[in-house]
Amino acid sequence: MDCLFCKIISGEVPAEVVREGERTLAFRDINPQAPVHVLVVPKDHHPNFAALSADPEVLAELAAEAGRVAEDEGVAESGYRVIFNTGAGAGQTVFHVHAHVLGGRGLNWPPG
After folding, report:
1. Where is this motif: Histidine triad motif (predicted)?
2. Which residue among 37, 46, 96, 98 is the active-site one?
3. Do the domain assignments include residue 111?
C-alpha cells in the first residue's frame, strides 16, 4: 500500500508526533492552516470518514484524542475545530481518514 499516513505510522516517513495512543497517532500537519494544526489518524487504514463509521470504537478514540490534542496544545478553552474531509471534492488529499485539529486563531464560519 502506498499510503503516506501508513508510512508515518510505521516510522518509514518522519513526522512530528504530538500524541500516540494504542490505536491512534497525532502529528503536526506539514502545511499548517492555523497556529495549531494537528492530524489525528487511526493506526489501521480506513480510506475516509465514511469507511471509519463501520468501526465506532476507533471513531470514538479519534474524537477523544482530538480533544486531548486541543488540551495539550492549549486551545481547548479558547476554541478549536475538528474537521474530517471526505473525498477529493471536500479537499481530502491523503486517503487515510484523519481528523484535523485546528486552533490558536479565529476560525471563520462558514469555512473556505
Report:
1. 96-100
2. 98
3. no
Overall number of domains in the chain: 1
Q: Does residue 110 lie within any of the structural domains?
A: no
Find cell 490505536 and name the residue. Answer: 23
CATH number of the domain that residue 20 is part of: 3.30.428.10
Distance CA 71, CA 68 (A): 5
Residue 85 is assigned to a structural domain of this protein? yes
DSSP notation for 26-84: EEE-SS-SSSEEEEEEESS--SSHHHHTT-HHHHHHHHHHHHHHHHHTT-TTT-EEEE-
What residues make up the domain containing 94? 4-103
68-104, pLDDT tens digit by residue?
A: 999 999 999 999 999 999 999 999 999 999 999 999 9
Contact 18, 38 (CB under 8 A): yes
Q: Mean pLDDT score of the chain, rounded to an integer?
A: 95
Identify whether 37 is a catalytic site residue: no
